[in-house]
Specification:
The complex is a heterodimer of chains A (about 230) and B (about 425).
Chain A (H helix, E strand, L loop, with lengths): L9 E5 L4 H8 L8 E5 L12 H11 L7 E4 L12 H30 L2 E6 L12 H20 L5 E8 L2 E2 L13 E2 H13 L4 E4 L3 H10 L2 H8 L2
Parallel strand pairs in A: 1-2, 1-3, 3-4, 4-5, 5-8, 6-7
Helix pairs in contact in A: 1-5, 2-3, 3-4
Chain B lengths: L1 E2 L3 E3 L8 E7 L3 H10 L6 E4 L15 E4 L6 E4 L4 E5 L4 H9 L3 E2 L11 H7 L6 H4 L6 E7 L5 E4 L4 H6 L8 E8 L1 E2 L4 E9 L2 H11 L5 E8 L7 E8 L13 E2 L11 H13 L4 E5 H5 L5 E2 L10 E8 L5 H13 L3 E9 L13 E9 L5 H14 L3 E2 L12 H4 L3 H11 L8 H5 L4
Parallel strand pairs in B: 3-5, 4-5, 16-18
Antiparallel strand pairs in B: 1-3, 2-3, 6-7, 7-11, 8-12, 9-10, 9-11, 13-15, 13-17, 14-15, 14-20, 19-21, 19-22, 20-21
The chains are: A alpha/beta (about 230), B alpha+beta (about 425).
Chain lengths: ~230, ~425
């Protein structure tokens, strides 16, 4: 349950190895009695995120006997695994970033609706703003997730359950190692700070960093030839 | 019976918002019917007027059984007892009793508490050093159990004591029989003393307990935190006084969610309160007992974020913990305009009852005070190390890990409770947060 300071007593981080996810958890207001469940590939709450039965088992276990106040869903792949073909990378990204995540979102929000309280933080991406030649596959998976999460946030209005969406730009982490860093790059610690802000915010969407909100407006408005030139740099 | 759609409910501190359905019942049959209707996995919780500060009377996703319409009162002047429905308030009982020159021996700072709530919290008042807590005047309790049966328990039964201070988690209090005391009038003879600091306050309160039925002190916890204040001492009076009807008539309007509590406003208020003319002589009993009811909706003053009340008890001889607390609060620039200090007498037999011999201090703070949460977490640990505990009916933030140390008979209570409700029909947000059941 939340305490009287509105701080969560029981949290699950799905994507327990995610640097952004861990950074958000680390920056929540200190509470010694908080129970934090890290859902990774192995361990008590081990999960193969692309396995439907695994996901169902996990969600049942998360809600077993205790309330869940906050779930951070921070699973995701860029779709750039060099051992896989372009098509297979795409299938994997769609599976992890969209299909599996949306399935989790749907089940977890149902569990929270039963409690009549709870918050889910979804990690979307700036990449979903507009297709770019180098990452539109990944961007499309995040666009789908973002779209669903916004719809769900609206549908859950008045139920006590809230959905928050964090849209980070480029975040320096293991996942993005070796990639060239564009403007407005932030560290995973900074991204975590925006995650905490997202949880406090009354708005559904939070950008990380905040300026990306305005950059996204410009990105969408630019004529395609200019946009391509800029985005290819 | 009226069952409402899911709606948002808060405790008196307004720092929780909980969504639940509410079934307003008007008799025992309807209350039994609620149980037979069955519930989903979120259970039922009997509630009254939601005067508990935190989440004791909330049940997110579940159903609240609203008992405020169980209003019957019967006074038997022969035995000086009152038989009262769970929804009768302390104020209503007082009025009915006074008509027979009787009065409930234990009443809290507000009269807007129902009988069910009074048992669930085992409330106390200014008379604790003489009379003990509320349960000590209860001679019989009619309880609706989770299996749908209505049974009567007396202080000889473990079920009675599990329900006392049991936070509504053992069953639905339907009716109580309460032993009243004889009073000569509707007045109380009051003497007030201004004291310059905490040690003078402790000294005076300690000395006065023998001679006064009612003792309490208002303590100024702002500015330099010396603990100056006003000690109020009273005995039942013999001369009747005129009383105005109602609760004093003042009501705080909706302040559009603004928090008016700041170190500056509290300091100004406390300065005025400290300097106010001292009362000496006869005062109306009910007004004296319920100073909080002078202004209705006073909880609005803390704004939309709400506030918490922190009340703890500590053994006599461990008063040094107050210095530690005051130093910390001064560091946070946290100011309280409702500090109350009182010396408790003997404890009741209830495993989950809060009062026990020692000093009890009550403080109000806005939840927006930076650093307050961490500070109180650390202070709780010191408190437990010194053998103290917090009052759960007012709590909204204690660590579940500390509750067994604060309430050493928790397991004994759980055993009785689980036998009374093996399928966890009775549930509350607080029970979930503190893992009580």
């Amino acid at each position: 349950m939340l305490n009287g300071f509105k701080n969560p007593g029981r949290i699950a981080l799905i994507g327990g190895e995610s640097e952004i996810g861990l950074s958000i958890v680390a920056q929540l207001p200190e509470d010694k009695s908080r129970e934090v469940i890290l859902v990774g590939r192995t361990g008590e709450y081990g999960l193969d995120v692309t396995n439907k039965a695994d996901r169902e088992k996990l969600v049942a276990k998360l809600f077993e006997g205790k309330d869940l106040d906050l779930v951070i869903i921070a699973v995701g792949v860029l779709g750039k695994d060099p051992t896989l073909s372009v098509a297979d990378n795409l299938v994997q990204a769609m599976d992890v970033n969209y299909l599996s995540t949306v399935h989790l979102l749907s089940m977890i929000s149902d569990g929270m609706k039963n409690q009549s309280h709870g918050t889910i933080l979804v990690i979307s991406s700036f990449a979903q703003v507009r297709p770019r030649d180098d990452n539109f596959g990944y961007g499309s998976t995040k666009a789908g997730l973002d779209f669903y999460a916004r719809g769900l946030a609206s549908k859950l209005n008045g139920t006590g359950v809230s959905i928050k969406i964090l849209r980070p730009g480029f975040v320096k982490s293991k996942m993005t190692e070796g990639l060239t860093t564009p403007p407005f790059t932030i560290s995973s610690e900074e991204c975590g700070r925006y995650g905490v802000l997202a949880l406090k915010s009354t708005k559904v969407v939070t950008w990380a960093p905040s300026i990306l909100k305005y950059v996204s407006v410009i990105f969408k408005a630019l004529p395609l030839p200019i946009f391509r030139k800029i985005s290819q740099r | 019976m009226r069952i409402t759609e899911a709606q948002t409910v808060s405790g008196w501190g307004k720092n929780f918002q909980s969504i639940s359905t509410r079934a307003v019942v008007s008799d025992v049959a309807e209350t039994v019917e609620i149980i037979s209707m069955g519930t989903a996995n979120r259970g039922l919780l009997p509630v009254g007027l939601h005067r508990s500060y935190g989440d004791s009377a909330l049940n997110s996703g579940g159903t609240l059984i609203d008992l405020t319409e169980l209003k019957h009162i019967a006074i038997d002047p022969e035995t000086a007892t009152a038989t009262v429905g769970a929804g009768v308030t302390i104020s209503e009982l007082e009025q009915a009793a006074l008509a027979h020159a009787l009065f409930p021996p234990v009443v809290p700072g507000t009269g807007n508490v129902t009988m069910g709530g009074a048992i669930a919290a085992d409330i106390h008042g200014k008379s604790h050093h003489k009379t003990g807590s509320f349960s000590q005047s209860v001679v019989e309790m009619k309880l609706l159990l989770a299996n749908g049966s209505v049974e009567t328990f007396t202080p000889h039964d473990p079920e009675f004591w599990a329900t006392v201070g049991g936070l509504g988690l053992t069953g639905v209090v339907i009716e109580l029989r309460i032993q009243l005391r004889v009073v000569q009038s509707n007045s109380v003879d009051v003497t007030e003393h201004r004291v310059p600091n905490l040690s003078a306050m402790i000294d005076l309160l300690g000395k006065s307990d023998k001679d006064y039925e009612h003792t309490v002190a208002w303590i100024d916890l702002s500015g330099d935190y010396r603990g100056r204040g006003v000690v109020s001492l009273g005995n039942y009076g013999s001369k009747s006084v005129k009383t105005s009807s109602g609760s004093g008539g003042l009501s705080l309007p909706d302040l559009a969610g603004t928090n008016f509590i700041s170190p500056l406003t509290v300091r100004a208020f406390n300065e005025v309160w400290f300097r106010k003319p001292l009362k000496n002589g006869a005062a109306a009993l009910t007004k004296y007992m319920h100073p909080l009811d002078g202004v209705a909706n006073w909880n609005r003053i803390y704004g939309a974020s709400g506030f918490l009340q922190y009340q703890f008890v500590i053994d006599e001889g461990r008063e040094e913990i107050f210095d530690q607390l005051f130093a910390g609060l001064r560091g946070l620039k946290a100011s309280s305009f409702l500090g109350v200090l009182k010396k408790f007498g003997a404890a009741s037999k209830a495993p989950m009852s809060f009062p026990r011999p020692g000093w009890t201090l009550t403080l109000d703070y806005s939840v927006t005070v930076p650093g307050l949460e961490i500070f109180l977490q650390k202070f709780d640990e010191e408190l437990v190390a010194a053998g103290g505990r917090v009052y759960l009916i007012k709590d909204s933030r204690v660590s579940p890990k500390l509750v067994p140390a604060m309430y050493p008979e928790l397991d004994q209570w759980r055993t009785t409770r689980n036998a009374m409700d093996p399928h966890h029909l009775w549930q509350s947000d607080q029970a979930r947060r503190l893992q009580l059941c």
